[in-house]
Amino acid sequence: MSTPEKTNPRSDPRWVRVALIAAALGVIGVLIVIPLVDVFVEAFGRGLGAYWQTLTGDADTQAAIRLTLTVAPIALALNLIFGIAAAWAISRFRFPGRTLLTALIDLPFSVSPVVAGLIFVLIFGLQGYLGPWLRAHDWRIIFATPGLVLATTFVTFPFIARELIPLMEAIGADEEIAAASLGASGWQLFRRVTLPNIKWGLVYGIILCNARAMGEFGAVYVVSGHITGRTDTMPLRVEKLFQEYNTPGAFAVASLLASLALVTLAVKTALEWKTRRDLAEAARLRSEGDAA
Amino acid sequence: MNDVNRRVLPGFRLSLGYTLAYLGVLVLVPLAACFSKAATLPFDRFWAAVSTERAIAAYELTVGASLVSAAINVVLGVLVAWVLVRYEFPLKRLVDSLVDLPFALPTAVAGLVYSSLYVESGWLGRFLVPLGIQAAYSRLAIVLVLVFVGFPFVVRTLEPVLERIDADIEEAAACLGATRLQTVTRVIFPSLYPALVTGFALSFARALGEYGSVVFVSGNMPFKTEIAPVLIVARLEEFAYAEATAIAVVLLVISFSVLVVVNLLERWSKRVYA
């Protein structure tokens, strides 16, 4: 390793490299690693038994976990169907306003989560546009599960679509056109041709969407009404326990959410490595084909 | 290709119709409701709601803290992206995937842990508080947590650009007698500017709307550490819906302006640097 330093003009002196690597590791350490470790240390600080007791002994925490496991999958399913439909329309066809539509899909990312919650309160809340009508029919959306689903779906709206659109554009429509010409029905076409091509991109979008759906705080904070045991999701439960000075309880629930984040990162990293390997493999096969 | 596709492939009307309907019902109509609710306020009441001293202090803090945190993220992002692309070191892949943690970690968890780390008894606070650095329940705490939340944006926009820089250009600069420092500052950095601007803007836009992490660490004192989203929630909890909506509209206009500026800058930089 000592010779390239003299000859390769792209490499930096050894002391520069060491200093920069140390600085970068310091940044990641303070900003990311220490907080991450601290979550688990605080959660397990009083032993595994106490940790387990904190999580399972509190009926409200249990209810929060159940609520999150209800709301997130519904939001995920809604955005999954939308993402596939949007990617199909945008990547396979040309129509006026296509660029605008692609831009509008990203819109929820630039809306503050608090505002995202507020807009649903303005429509479905007691003083909202549909409030009197909903009350007449005795339906509750705000301060109830449907409101949580709406707010969560709004903030996770773009995730799957924006993952699929560039992927399907890159893959192209040739195989699908061939299948359609050979008489495949729409469903056969999707299940046998499109789905196998996009499945890893789909998984990637789903895990990112799920992480955000389970972790969303601002938007659900506004629509939930904070009815303990009824409309508190896991992140809201963390906040409530923190406000009640129940730090061990807050960190126990937080540790579950942090584990979810770690699993998400692990799957995401594995998928990215797989994609890189597949691309390299495809390039190798292509060059071998050219040589032959 | 469009005519062929539309004749051969099924589902154009169904998929586009569903996309438009879903986008309309879930996103466009609710956002329009927000603007129309604000429009029902007489202008002087709207103006009174958005221009109270407390509201103006909140906008200033929101925009100021977001700008500072995005600027810090540019510096940290250049450092981390450079090291990850150019150098080899143990556990590099692990470090690389940890960069994305702020995208995956719920903001409430980030807020909770940052508030506990920087108080006097916390792991980092016990060193900083004796030095007079209050990084919990202060404006500094807001900036810190916004740096965390926006950290991956600059790194992830820079990495592909750094990977694509031609070795030839650097070698040419070296052959023509440039020192390494000159090559880096005059040849490499200029080609990074568009990506830096994009990363800065993404990080800034994310920070503008952030709520979950800030609410834990800031202490939420009006005029001192209250950001605009926290003020909206405070108004809502007083059942002052009209006032909350008016402030929300100001925040939306700021965010959408950032979005438009980002798009214009990207188009401009594509033309200039292409």
Task: Summarize the SSE layout with pairings.
The complex is a heterodimer of chains A (292) and B (274).
Chain A: H1 3-7, H2 14-44, H3 48-56, H4 59-92, H5 98-105, H6 113-124, H7 131-136, H8 145-155, H9 158-171, H10 174-181, H11 186-215, H12 218-224, H13 234-243, H14 247-291
Helix pairs in contact in A: 2-14, 4-8, 4-9, 4-11, 6-8, 6-12, 8-12, 9-11, 10-11, 11-14, 13-14
Chain B: H1 2-8, H2 12-39, H3 43-50, H4 53-86, H5 92-98, H6 101-104, H7 107-118, H8 125-128, H9 139-164, H10 167-175, H11 180-209, H12 212-217, H13 228-237, H14 241-273
Characterize the structure shown.
The complex is a heterodimer of chains A (292) and B (274). Chain A is mainly alpha-helical and 292 residues long. Helix content of chain A is 79%, strand content 0%. Chain A has helices at 3-7, 14-44, 48-56, 59-92, 98-105, 113-124, 131-136, 145-155, 158-171, 174-181, 186-215, 218-224, 234-243, 247-291. In chain A, helix 6 packs across helix 8, helix 8 (145-155) packs antiparallel against helix 12 and helix 10 (174-181) packs antiparallel against helix 11 (186-215). Helix content of chain B is 80%, strand content 0%. Chain B is built from 14 helices and no strands. In chain B, helix 4 crosses helix 11 (180-209) and helix 7 (107-118) crosses helix 9. The radius of gyration of chain B is 23 Å and the shape is globular.
